[in-house]
Design a protein that fits this description.
The complex is a heterodimer of chains A (about 170) and B (about 400). Chain A has about 170 residues and is of the alpha+beta class. Chain A has four helices and five strands, in the order αααββαβββ. Chain A is globular, with a radius of gyration of 18 Å. Chain A starts with 8 loop residues before the first helix and ends with a strand. The mean pLDDT of chain A is about 90. Chain B is built from eleven helices and twelve strands. The chains are: A alpha+beta (about 170), B alpha+beta (about 400). At the A-B interface, α2, α4 and β5 of A face α4 and α5 of B.
């Protein structure tokens, strides 16, 4: 049976599919963080990010027609994948030791505020792609929108050290 | 020589510690082959293989339900700080279905790890919170189910009550209405008898006819009141602002003959504008004043005082109708509002026993209350609580 649209609903509800999915992810992260703690929640989301990172890595390898991306190609891939999901990152610096990326908006938009576990998605995707191609990566996030900073600053270290989360290729 | 011996002793200690770990611990290479298994892991494998011979060299897929490729992939991912969950290849009594391992990467001067150390974690770290979450959800569902049932029960009870009220109203109306007709006929016949044959009746029979007419008259009043009362059952009154001072002025005017006849004094103080139905409010106060006159004390002139208090925070105003009449003994106060409740004989004070019942019903229909208390100066005080009319 066809139902008529609810008069006046558009004035109250502005949520579209994209916003709904962001809200859904934010609430899932909220439930996880409150139930299992930030560390375990990050573990969950990190696992999802690793899977997505693996898939994307294969795509970029195919695009660059190579079995392993070099440092510049890795940086290009990280910027490109974020560009596609409206999380525009820019490369601040690039060297054999590290790739530094910054942004001023998040793909999860305002739903990310206070949901630090969602940042693990970026950490894992970046870390997995970098480690799979360069053998090792260590992702550090000194600034994040989720923690209340104006933008995110993500350092993908390519050498061993203390800070950040390690990824192995 | 000494340093070599120390190194050997140090290595022996590390191996002993690894072996003694009260967990399943394994050293696994990038091909998922297990190079060293501690006592706990060895015991697990022996238990799993049971009658089968345990291979001299075994890999993770020999023990766990996972492919070689996935095992390596999972170890690489878990080495970032996650745990990996490995289901056992077969079910065995006394063995868990799945084992969670923490994974550490071992690198001998290489960027990529060449070996991994897997150590089992006790318990399911996420099991408890998720069980709690499920229990909360089940609790919430159960509460919602009970509330739904309760609401359905209330709805049914309300529907039943409405149906019973409607039936009662219809029945009472039909009975009282149908009684009127034969009553009028009997009354007419008695009038005929009185007019045509009273001279032929002896005194005793004439008295009987007179008593019959009085009884019929009382019955007529009773039926009229009953009809009025049935109209009040379950009815919703359209409310409007009613100035009580005007209502009381009309009632006093209507009762002027009775008031004068009883040498009664009626005093009214400032009265509010209440939310009500003018005709019903008139019936209400007419009954209360009429009762106060009817039940006046034989030894003193009747005095009736009507006053109001300030409205309370719920916008309810208290109105007191105080008389100095015969009063109501405490043991009777609870039932004077009941149907057909009478404290006096007909020949003492006439009435149907429905007046106060109607009063309370009217007040209830206006979402108010009506009670009675003792007047410290003698007599009774009827206390009404009514809604104050709002300015809008």
């Amino acid at each position: 049976m066809e139902m008529a649209p609810i008069a006046g609903a558009d004035k109250v509800i502005s949520r579209n599919r994209d916003e709904f999915l962001r809200e859904l992810l934010s609430e899932l992260a909220n439930v996880l963080e409150s139930r299992v703690g930030l560390e375990a929640a990050e573990g969950f989301i990190g696992r999802v990010g690793s899977r997505i990172g693996e898939t994307m890595n294969e795509e970029y390898r195919a695009i660059f027609e190579t079995d392993a991306l070099d440092v510049t190609q890795v940086a290009q891939a990280l910027v490109d994948l974020k560009e596609r999901i409206e999380g525009a990152f820019k490369v601040e610096s690039i060297s054999p030791e590290k790739i530094v990326l910054v942004n001023s908006s998040c793909p999860f938009a305002d739903q990310v505020e206070g949901r630090e576990s969602l940042c693990m998605m970026t950490t894992s995707v970046f870390g997995r792609i970098a480690a799979s191609n360069l053998g090792y990566a260590r992702v550090e996030k000194p600034q994040t929108i989720a923690r209340g900073d104006l933008g995110c600053r993500v350092i993908v270290h390519l050498t061993e050290g203390e800070a950040g989360r390690e990824f192995f290729g | 020589m000494s340093s070599l011996a120390d190194a050997a002793r140090h290595r022996d200690n590390e191996v002993s510690a690894f072996q003694a770990l009260p967990k399943h611990a394994m050293l696994v290479d990038r091909a998922a082959r297990v190079h060293v298994a501690n006592a706990g892991a060895e015991k697990l494998v022996r238990h799993l293989f049971q009658d089968e011979a345990v291979p001299e060299r075994w890999a993770l897929p020999d023990v766990f339900e996972i492919s070689l490729e996935d095992a390596v992939r999972e170890m690489l991912i878990a080495a970032s700080g996650d745990a990996m969950l490995l289901p056992l290849r077969a079910k065995r009594p006394g063995l868990p279905r799945r084992i969670r391992f923490r994974v550490g990467a071992i690198r001998n001067g290489t960027r990529a790890p060449n070996r991994f150390v897997l150590v089992s974690e006790s318990g399911d770290a996420l099991g408890k919170p998720f069980r709690e979450l499920n229990a909360e959800l089940e609790g919430a569902n159960e509460r919602a189910r009970r509330e739904r049932q309760h609401r359905l029960c209330l709805e049914k009870a309300n529907n039943d009550l409405n149906a019973a009220n409607a039936e009662l109203k219809s029945f009472a109306y039909a009975v009282s209405h149908d009684l009127k007709s034969p009553l009028q006929t009997v009354s007419m016949l008695l009038s005929e008898l009185d007019a045509c044959g009273s001279r032929a009746l002896d005194r005793e029979k004439a008295e009987l006819v007179g008593m019959s007419r009085e009884t019929l008259s009382r019955m007529s009043v009773l039926i009229e009141d009953l009809l009025h009362y049935t109209e009040l059952i379950g009815s919703v009154m359209p409310c409007e602002p009613c100035p009580l001072e005007e209502v009381l002025a009309d009632v006093i005017a209507d009762l002027r003959a009775e008031i004068t006849g009883a040498s009664a004094t009626v005093r009214t103080g400032p009265l509010p504008v209440v939310s009500g139905e003018p005709v019903m409010l008139r019936v209400l106060f007419q009954n209360l004043l009429s009762n106060a006159i009817k039940f006046r004390h034989p030894d003193r002139p009747a005095k009736i005082d009507i006053g109001a208090e300030e409205a309370d925070s719920d916008e309810m105003v208290t109105i007191r109708v105080a008389d100095n009449g015969v009063g109501i003994a405490p043991e009777y106060r609870a039932r004077i509002f009941d149907l057909f409740s009478r404290l006096h004989r007909h020949d003492e004070i006439p009435g149907s026993g429905l007046g106060l019942t109607m009063c309370r019903r009217i007040v209830q229909n206006l979402n108010g209350t009506l009670d009675v208390d003792e007047n410290p100066d003698g007599g009774s005080i009827f206390i009404l609580k009514l809604n104050v009319a709002r300015d809008d």
